[in-house]
Amino acid sequence: MAAQAGSRGDEQLSTAAEETRELCERLQVEIADLLRHEGADESPDPLSVLTERESEVARLIARDHPSNAELAASLHISEKTVKTHVSNILRKLDISQRSAIGWLLQSNGEQMSALLNRTMSTTKS
């Protein structure tokens, strides 16, 4: 009888150990899924989709709010090229108004710093 009780105890212990192992595996999968989804919720740097020149134009628009003519003069390009850059920026950032460029850059301080660093290193070269 004691042997049978011991055998049932071992069996219960083995079952509990197996259930615990399965629970740990499910927990690991749940944690991995949560971490993946948490990373996906973080918005990627919207400025990473811009070319260096578009980044420079976006920075100038955010900082000084110049007209297309003023941008063209300061960048030594045609007004038509400025309009193309601005259109590309609006499309790539999925915004509809030029004023939103400044808002987007100002609301993302880290992104603005990265943009400034990238633009400044380009203009020094």
TrEMBL record:
Query: Does the record's keyword annotation contain DNA-binding?
Result: yes
Q: Which SUPFAM superfamilies match?
A: C-terminal effector domain of the bipartite response regulators
Report the residue ranges that make up the HTH luxR-type domain in this protein.
43-109
InterPro entries, from UniProt? Sig_transdc_resp-reg_C-effctor (IPR016032), Tscrpt_reg_LuxR_C (IPR000792), WH-like_DNA-bd_sf (IPR036388)
Q: Which domain of life is it from?
A: Bacteria
A GO molecular function annotation here is: DNA binding
GO BP term, example: regulation of DNA-templated transcription
Q: Which UniProt keywords apply?
A: DNA-binding, Transcription, Transcription regulation
The identity of this protein, by name, is Response regulator transcription factor
Its taxonomic placement starts with: Bacteria, Bacillati, Actinomycetota, Actinomycetes, Micrococcales
